[in-house]
Every structure is written in structure tokens, then in C-alpha cells.
Amino acid sequence: MQNILSMPRCARVWLVGGLLSAIGATTAFAATPDIYNTSNHQLTIPSIVIGSVTYNDLVVTVGSILNLPFGSSGSNIGDTFTAENQQLRIAEVMVGSTAYWNPVVLVSGLVSIGGISGAATFNGSHLTLPAVQIIGGSLYTNVVVAISLADIVSVGGGMPTVDQNQYNPANLNQLTIPVIQVGGKIYTNVVVTVNNSQLRSVGGSIAGASTDVLSFAGPFSAPPRSSSPLAALILGSDGAFYGTTGNGGANFQGTVFRVTQAGVYSLLYTFGTTSGDGSTPKAPLTEGTDGNFYGTTAAGGDSGRGVAFKISSTGSETRLHSFGAPGSHDGVAPNGLVEGSDGNFYATTNLGGANNLGAIVQITPAGIATVVYSFGTNGNTDGSFPEAALVQGSTDGIFYGTTASGGASSEGTVFSFTLGGVETVLYSFGVVSDRDGAVPNAVLFQGNDGNYYGTTYIGGQYNRGTVFSVTPQGAETQLYAFHGDGGLGGSLDGAYPLNGVIQGSNGAFYGTTNNGGAFNVGTVFRVVPGGSESVVYSFSGASVLAGSQDGAYPEGVVQASNDALVGVAYGGGANFQGTVFAIPPGAVN
């Protein structure tokens, strides 16, 4: 068989079961590429994160190349390895003088590891592990295990077959360790027999810091019939939390629900109930000055392009506007509403407008919609494709928002917009090769200092996203760059924040990452104004950690009156349909 890495870059390749994936990217990220030696089929990887461990100068033998997509830009998230099927996806690889992007290969063997960080260590009498997954229980951090050489059952070698240190008391008390360093030697797939008395956690139980308020049950069961929440909760003036799910309900088109601080759930509305109703809400609600709740759906309506709606606290729903009427240019896929100081509501749309690059739409309480700005008016430099709602400044009355693309470097913007219709780009991301962040797609939050705080989905030093602040005049500061799922030095800080941040009662900022953490299914994090970051909670997901119902892929948090952080997770939970979770005040502050 011809080695396909010697084929032209533009070749389409179907091998070993067909095309597995065509992984694209919007932004190339400068990093050291892998090197593939066609003579011995060995691949040298400068650095890769697997679970909670970073492997440096990893050399593996490639058994077969499953996929070589054509294209002209590398992946934004680096190499990724799936232990279950031994498949490695490579962001960029050099074969001689030719670069290839995003191939997927099957690893047949491990040749060598130059160095590791975040791995377990053994000094002859004690194992030290950054984290241990207890099958059927919790995740414990900074675990010390007293063992002797006699406790080691096997050293398997080869690439890791699990991503995390796992202890299974039901299976001969076996502790499985993907990689361990003993002096100057590195071993993989080590199995050790231990018992509970040998485990000494000097950290704590990550899973014990969160309470599963409820697990969504999906559309085919008794309430809560909702599933898959796509947006953060809001705290209503009545003290209850209000939110939406993107799926579920009697019509499988999403719902609006309420959860009290005591965990009592109420289904307020099921979309698809009437002709022309909306579907798939994916933006947070906002409470109007009239006590009703206002929101948008990304789809549905007369043209299938989304609606704006209001709903009372008792579930009475009214459609205000249906987006995307032929010839209207009023926008497609709205991103949520905010009530302006003039009494009207304002929404950004991801598409539509005069240039089909997104728009800002004013909607009166009576439902009359007017496009007040179309992105792309100044070419692409004014931003394009906004993915988050606006926020109005508390003192100047100006709206502030983000676009996920466009700007001077096409990596997204922070902009302002006046009630008089003037849009100004305050900051364009990507001025330093993405190191300042890229693709801001979350709503901004105005801090106590009057500045605006937000996140970028990618970019930063490690290309896993950032937390930033911007002054009303446009001065940007990067507060933190996420390391990723395991990160440098065994960091579990999170990766790819999809949602924005809030400022807690203690002055710190809190948010969620969609990936990363101990099990790569998301975190709740804290960033202090000076930029120091810490993980408040690392999700495990019921599909990852047996017995855990905490959820996976969180969608932002809101702070309750007792300082607890409350949020929703898109997946995981008892029914794998998402959860509402709470982190108690003691774990927050």
C-alpha cells in the first residue's frame, strides 16, 4: 500500500473503513508540527496532553493512516489521542518539506517518551498521583498510595489505554495508572493492587463539591421532560432560576423552565405548541421591567430562522417577532434580548442583515422590529457573526457586545453601539497571532470597576481560550490563558470557554469551560481581578465516572442569594440529558 503521507496534500483519502472525519478550523495556530518518518513509520510529537498528563517528545509507531483531509489550515486544539481506540488526530505534521493538516492515524506502539509532567510518581514506597477516579464514587486529588513492589501486578507498556488514574474497588482493588515515572524511567499502563487503607488523599473530592439539583430526563419520560440546556440560567426577582433547554418537551423543540433554590422544577412552556412557534432556544433569558421574561429561539418561526418571545412566570407565552421574513434583512438566528433604557428590546443575530454577516435588531414591546445596524457595513473590519447578546452600560447607556469573527485580523471584536445607531469597534482580537485570544462568542459582563469582562473560545498562549477585560475606551487586558485538559505541569484548569463570566459577591470572576478539567468535560473556574485562576469544580459526567450525576459540558453559572453558584450542564446526569447543578458557598469563596 502506498504511504498516503507521501501523496499530494489535496488528495482525498478513504482508507481503513472510510473517511472518519473532516476536521476543519477557522484559525491556524502557530505551534511546532509533528515529524513523520516514512522509512520507519515513526511519528515524533513535541507535546501532547492525554487526560491529566502532558507527554513531551513522544515517539510512536503509526500502524495505519485513517484520514488525511485536504485543506489549508491546521487544527486549533493541537494533537488529541483517544485511548479507547488508540486513534491520534494530528493538528499539523511535516513529511520531509511538506505540511499536512488534521490526519487521523492508528497508533500501533509506543517507542519512547522524552519527558512527562502531571504523571504519577513512585519513590519505592509511595505512589503520588495528581488525581484518582474512584469507579462508582468520586474524583480525589493529590492522592498518596502506600505500596510495595509486590503490589504492582503488571506494567503493560504501549500507549495509555485509559486517560486517568482509575481505582476500582470491585475489581480486585485494582488501580490502573496510564503513565508513571520511577526515577529516570517511564512506565505505561501500570496495574497496582491496593485497598482503601492504602489510599491517602491530601487534596479532596472534586465530585463532592457539587450538588446535582436535578437531572433532565428527556422528552419520553415524566417531568422534567426537558433535555440539553444550551444557555445559562438567570436569577429571577422572585428568587427562582429560569432557563431554557434546546431539546425536549412534548414537541422535541425545547422548553422554558423554572427551578427554585430548593430544587423544585416547573416546566413553563414547550416550544412548537402553536403554528409558527419558535424552536431550539440557545440564549439566556432576560427579565423585563414588567416582570415577564424575554428570549429568543435560534430556529422556528414563520421562516424557520428564529423568533423573539416573552413568557410570564406562570408560563403564558407570546411570540413578539419572527425573524427572516423574505426581503426583510432583519436577521437570522437571534442571540438573546436585552431591554434598553428606552424601553425597547435589542438583539444581535448571527446571520442576516444587509450583508448577511449579522445585525442588531430593535424590537418594541409590541413586536415591531427594525434593523438598526448591519455588520459588514465597513467591510469586515466592523465585526461579523455575533454569537452573544448585548449588555447596556450602567452609566453611559451604550450597548457593548462581541462578534466571533471580523475585525482587523478576522478573529473577532469587542464593539459598542449607541441608541443613535453608531457602531464602534473597541478592540480587534488576533493582533499578536491569537495570543491575545480569538473568537469571543459570549456575552460581556460589566464589572464593579466599570470595565467589561469576557472570554474567548480559543487563542491565548495555549490556544485553549482566555479571560479578558476591555475598558469602555477599548484598552484590552488578558487576565488568564487556559492551559487545557491536563495542561502544563498537570494543570486541570479547563479549556474552550463557551460562556462569559460573572462577578461574584467577593469580587472574583466566575465562569465555565466547555472542556478540560480532570475528565475533559468542563470546569467551573475562578479568576481574581489580578489574573490568578483556580478551578472551583471539575465535572466528571455520568458517562465518564460511574455513579456520578454532576453533568458534563457546563453552560455558565449565576450566583444565588446565598452565594452558591448555580448552573446547567448540557450533558451527563442520571439520564445523560443534562443537569442543573449547585456549588455551595463554602466551595465558591
Structure description:
This protein is an all-beta fold and 589 residues long. The protein has 3 domains: 110 residues, no CATH class; 84 residues, no CATH class; 382 residues, Methylamine Dehydrogenase, Chain H. Helix content is 1%, strand content 43%. A hairpin with a 3-residue loop joins β9 and β10.
In short:
The protein contains one helix and 48 strands.
Number of domains: 3
What is the general shape? globular
Assign the CATH architecture of the largest domain. 7 Propeller
Beta-sheet strand percentage?
Answer: 35-45%
User: Spatial order of the strands in the main sheet?
Assistant: 4-5-8-3-2-1-6-7
**CATH topology of the largest domain, what is it called?**
Methylamine Dehydrogenase, Chain H
**Helix-residue proportion:** under 10%
Distance from N terminus to C terminus (CA atoms, Å) equals: 60 Å
Number of helix segments?
Answer: 1
The overall pLDDT average reads: 82
Query: How many E strands?
Result: 48
* CATH superfamily placement of the largest domain: YVTN repeat-like/Quinoprotein amine dehydrogenase
Under CATH at level 1, the class of the largest domain stands as Mainly Beta
Q: Based on helices, strands and strand pairing, what is the structural class?
A: mainly beta
* Biggest sheet descriptor: 8 strands, mixed
The rounded Rg comes to 25 Å
Task: Give the quaternary arrangement of the chains.
Answer: single chain
Unreliable stretches, pLDDT < 50, 5 or more residues?
1-30, 486-491, 542-547
